[in-house]
Amino acid sequence: MKVKITCPVPEHELQAGLIYDVPDELAFELINDEKAIVVIEEAPVKTKKVKHDNG
Amino acid sequence: MTTGRTLLRFARVYADGYDLSGYSRSFGPLATTFDEGIDDAVTLSIKGVWAGNATVSMGALNGIFDNTATSGIHAVMNGAGVGRTVMIAQGIQAVPAIGDPVFAGKFEQLGYIGGGTDNPVTATIPFGGTNAASGNLSYVKPWGILHHAMGAETDVNAANGIGGDGQTTKGGWMCYQINAAAGTGNITAALKLQHCATVDGVYADLLSTGTLNLGSGGTFTAPTAGIVTLATNATVESFIRWQIVLTLATSVTFALSFHRNNL
């Protein structure tokens, strides 16, 4: 689970202001302790090829 | 926030959460100094400086000897050889308000010189450089901005932040001073700074103290203070505001500063 750290967690070598992918259990613990926030990932934008018809 | 010259009487001095303003006569120099290079060859015409290797110190705090239990300068500061989280908020032509300059850091208390030969009896506290455990050793700039003047809060902050000088990507750090708190059981709360690219946008957490337990059984334990540091490559948006999470606490009296790094 990706979280953004807002309070350094030296025992896990997590620096504030950076995004880490950490185990869910640790993520929930940090969020519950006001030391991290969830990073909401936007769904990838799907691209669609459009054929241009000059005829 | 006002700009311009100011007077010493508009400064406020906080150490480890205690408000020592009423006990302080003077302080300083609030210094950031860089060492000259000692490895420069004799052939060089100019002596270099070790940029990025600063010594930051708040000089000495000169106060009035007072042994009032739990709050007097003698009761609070008579132990030397420890790191003290100090914040000096310099109000501009008025008591410190949001946006005013702040000098802060965790400095080693080198001594305590109480008593004297004059009236009233004085207390002098010399400070050394930054304490090794301060957490902000990666930052050479002790000056920042006051984001919450010392005062009580009982609810979350919905106001817009201050700033507007653009996004930076070199981190920064915050200093908090908690002078009092109230609640009925465990007095738990977290202090935060939030940031946003636009002044009236959606603010996201930037820095947090984490949940602090400030007392139990409805009794506040003692004033406390600390420094919380961002990574030196962290992105900080243009506008910043204070925030509080009152988990079980009902009120927290605090001052909060942010020291944006742009060096």
Overview of this protein structure:
The complex is a heterodimer of chains A (55) and B (263). Helices cover 16% and strands 18% of the residues of chain A. Chain A has one helix and three strands. The mean pLDDT of chain A is 88. Chain B is mostly beta strands. Chain B has one helix spanning 73-77; strands at 11-15, 18-19, 24-28, 31-36, 49-57, 60-64, 83-90, 101-109, 113-114, 122-130, 143-153, 162-163, 172-183, 188-196, 204-208, 212-213, 215-216, 219-220, 224-229, 239-246, 249-260. In chain B, strands 1, 2, 3, 6, 7, 8, 9, 10, 11, 13, 19 and 21 form a twelve-stranded antiparallel beta sheet that branches. In chain B, strands 12, 14, 15, 16 and 20 form a five-stranded antiparallel beta sheet that branches. Chain B has a two-stranded antiparallel ribbon with strand order 4-5. In chain B, a hairpin with a 2-residue loop joins strand 17 (215-216) and strand 18 (219-220). The longest helix of chain B is centred in the first third of the chain and has 5 residues, at 73-77. The model of chain B has no long low-confidence stretch (mean pLDDT 94). The A-B interface holds A 4, 6-8, 15-18, 33-35, 37 and B 135, 171, 190, 192, 204-211, 228-231, 233-236, 245.
